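Extended Data, panel c. Modelled sequence:
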Amino acid sequence: MDSVARSTLRLISKCQYCEEFGEFCILARQSSRSAVLFMVRTQATTKSGRPRPDSRRQAVLSTIIEEHLITGEAVGSHAISERFARATGWSSATIRNVMSELEDAGLLEQPHTSAGRIPTDGGYRYYVDNMLAWATLSENDLSAIESIGAGQEVTARPDRLMERASHVLSEISENVGIVVWPSLAENRLKQIRFMKLSDSRILVVLVSTSNIVHDKLISLDEEFTQDDLNRTARYLNSEFAGKTLLAIRSEILALMKKEKALYDSVVRNAILLCERSFEDEDSATAGVFVDGASNIFGKPEFANAEKVRDLFRTFEEKSRLVKILNECVTGVFADSRVRVLIGQENVTTSLKNCAVITASYDLGSDVSGTIGVVGPTRIEYGRMMAVVNYLARFIERAISSGASLH
């Protein structure tokens, strides 16, 4: 495993579980790339200083999850005994009994008869919901995220920001980074402009209230002067600014049914131009940026070639990815800024062995996008949740600073 994992093991061996059993245990992870503090809720000790049963179970579960993260192998009782060698009330028999209790509770499983234990999806879920209270990012992680916004190109063309965000996310996580920004149909119109080109072509520039800019070339049989186009744009901006493309199209269709609209040149031009400008936009797929799909190679969880192919097909189907991330954002575990789906909690078959960690970023006007990390269930949950959350807030700041998303 890499230096991050080895550093994690070294520092967690100093865990307060090994020295005392107070109300809380702080697990510190620090390396050149990450410094994440996890507050792990435990039960109080007995008067004799020995850990209570619940405290023991949480200590063993946490140890097995952290060891498994580092090695990728099943964790035996001997490894746990070494961790708690100096602690009171941690005999080998006690540890084996606690491991059996966790297995009976569905939090651990034994992959082979002679092997140790590994966490189940339920074990990871318990760990995420009950043992990870908060996390802070290292300076290196923060610097990597902040560097996304550097450079004039990103300021001028913030679609580059989304592309770089997915790349940095994949590099930090060493898994797959995904950034989704909403389709134009989901946005509200801020401004529309028309520019006359040669060969009866017209450049349509749509700007949303969240500063997403969309260019489209249309061709019409009818000739328009630039003055015609300017008058039509002023009419549309005054009548429809702040409305979604879907609502505008609906109102334009209603206008087409009114006979008097045919005698108003501005309205008639608006109908003609909007009909072509908005064509297919109401069903357009959101923009999706995926990076780091090759990171899954070499991970033992993805040794099955057929499962890898299925996973890659999922990454290639952009509309399917949007649906998957939306399910994560709005699903049963969507009660916080960061959402986590673990293994079998994923609806998509190809993600049944994966963890999907997502967060939304707000673009204003009730429009939001999504970012996420996809990797094996054996992932640094605390650190990745902190990374995803911070990156989502960073994108919000970048967009609100006045950059337009082209």
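The mean pLDDT is 77. This feature is highlighted in the accompanying rendering.
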